[in-house]
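Posting for a labmate who doesn't have an account.
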Amino acid sequence: MKSKKLTFLILSGPTKEYIDPVRFISNESSGKMGNALAQAALKRKCDVIFISGPSSVFSNNIKLIKVTTALEMFKEAKLNFKKADIVISAAAITDYCPVITYKRKIKKNKAEMLIKLKRNPDIIGYCGKNKKNQVVAGFALETENLIDNARLKLKSKKLDLITANGKESLGSDSATMYIINVDGVLEIKNKNKKIIAEKIIGETIRMFKNIESGKKIS
């Protein structure tokens, strides 16, 4: 019997959380990894729903849903979640956002200024905890205890796979990454992100086919 065409939901890029019209909290994510994942999925003849925060790294053949903030990304992810067989978040979603966003530029009139922050939603955690016969994969960027911290995220967010990487991967074309699931750790050392993306896409498809056939996901 012919296998059905799979649909990927891929989250990419950074998010920006505005303090006022010209200042924001964000990070150095370029969107290169998310774009590479989308290309690898399209190469496998899969459908791709691609949601990205602010980034200049887009391929013309990707159908793009543009967002800016974590809340906007969460809204679009929830709208498209049930359409996907496989969800991968390579987005560097800003964990916190300002409690108050000022409508006008804040003037420099004090020696110090305190900005109160609140937690943004855990998007990949939501997907992991609400999946129904889906594969959900995430990324863990860590500055210490890389493998251990990634494994904690894998378990706490109920993910099927997580890819761990260090700060040096931000904005780069190549990186060393560790693909982790319940079976163990696969190190991919200093490879182009396109090669890493193809490995991740292949592994998530394999895991989905196990679900489809009633086997264990590992």
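Reply:
Got it, the structure tokens are right above this. The two ends are 23 Å apart (CA to CA).
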